[in-house]
Amino acid sequence: MSPGTGPSSAPDPNQHPNRNPADQRGRPEGTAADAPAARAPEAGAPAPGAAAAAAPDDGPSGAEAAEPTDETAERAREAAHASRDREAAETAKVGTFASLKIHNYRIFFAGAVVSNTGTWMQRIAQDWLVHTLTGSAAAVGMTIALQFLPMLLFGLYGGVLADRLDKRKLLICTQASMGLTGLVLAALTLSGNVEVVHVYALAFILGVVTVLDNPARQTFVSDMVGPGLLRNAVSLNSANFQTARIVGPAVAGVLIGAVGSGYAFLFNGLSFIAPVAGLLLMRTAELNSAERAPRSKGQLREGLRYVGSRPDLLWPIVLVGFIGSFGFNFPIWVVAFTDRIFEAGAGTYGLLNALMAVGSLTGALIAARWGASRTRWTVASAGLFGTLLMVLSGAPTLWVFAALLVPTGLVGMTFMISGNTSLQLASDPAMRGRVISLYMMVFLGGTPFGGPLMGWLTDSYGPRVALVLAGAICATAALGVAMALGRVGGLRLQLRLRRGEPLIAFVPRRPAPGGEPATGTEPATTQTRRASSIPGHSRTVNGPSGVNPCDR
Q1: Model-wide pTM > 0.85
Q2: What is the dihedral of CA 159, 160, 162, 164, to 10 degrees?
Q3: CB 136: neighbour CB atoms within 10 A?
């Protein structure tokens, strides 16, 4: 039996179809469960009133039963909107640190504070060590490429294993392995026997472990806090990481100057004791354990088919690929702007990176405060991110450039958090690991392609040209994905010039029957017919709950 399941956790027939029966255990300590409310019908099923209207005592048959009446369609639309409004209310504003009220997440977060600081210390010390050993910037780039290469090659297999295995036990193994790589590098460095080939090999091994660790760690958050606090918890994880991004390099710089790189590696290796201890101390009965996928052939292809049949998953992942490949190349641009445009030194470069981290941290804390997550916010933040990159490319002075880095980091972090949480909430628990592994693969795996291209453009045409082109690509990708999702949902883009209304909005392509304003949500029977056209899946392509992907 999975942890957290038993006779007392029998499925509630009124529960949301995407939620695990044990999700109620993810509530903050000291709070009572909400009173059960009337639930909307499941996706693809008619509303209770609609069922009564469609099946009177005499019982229509044949073609009459195949198509809903106008009244049935209207009730289905009202039920879908009520469900969407209820879910939005459940995940509206929450306390910034609400997830920390949950015991399991609290000790997970505390362990991550220590290990993230050690990870950033090792990143700085490792780059410095490679540069010291070789005197080559290309060697530093090779180290980074070897660390990301396994994600590009094997990322999807990590998602399969995350769906199949116990996530907590898998994380204990991966976190301990990461700590071991740090200790080995520390031993080699402190003994004076380290060579660049050792660093290459350990970077690749660390990348292989990350293939397993990343999807398991990302999806384990939902097991700890449940869907209602998922965005808050993911945001706090990002804030945790960004705080370590500020503190870790500073501590590493002092440590390297005082005693050498070896002690930074030693601290990183020992830092993984904290997350491993936290995982061992968790109350397994309080985990919202998702149903594990049984071992079978073709699970990788099954995951790809699942994403391909769900536009609300496929198109955001496509967008993440564009933004990750072309938009997140700040080390290239910040170095070039610092040196070639503003003719400043290493101290200024460090300051600009710190400002970027401050913006990212602020974005993570704001996202933690606002608990809801919708696909349209992911697309909108991607478009705004691309626009900010284009504005940033034209910064006339160093201080304008520095000031613009803060909102750019904020919006970029908002995009990452919104994309992560919306994909997790929209996917089936049994498929979540594979969905997130694909998300991470396109986000991180695009760096070996987009990074060199942006570097070549920067060297050949200047950093301003490269940055404005990257921003244009990101903004165009966001607009293209918005149009694709609108087409799937039967919507079109409309320019509005009335005061008090959005300038640009998606509206239905044609009005609803009977002259009523269309809602963008299909009648229940139409959803059922569309869902049945996808082999092996009962979900509608418009996503869970039958809600239009542009409304998510």
Answers
A1: no
A2: 170
A3: 12
